[in-house]
Amino acid sequence: MANEDQAKGKAKDIGGKLKEEAGDATNNEDLKREGQADQVEGKVQKGAGDAKDKLSD
Fold this sequence. Notes:
Layout: H1 4-25, H2 29-56
């Protein structure tokens, strides 16, 4: 079962991908970069959740 950090990280990653695609489709470079940053944040948060999960085993 996913912990809170894993779930929030995955959601942020997915949201970032959608933002990046929207920015790409509308030629909005700021939105595209914001989406890329959200993806990085999401992956880091998910990684922290994965580490917490392993430590609790």
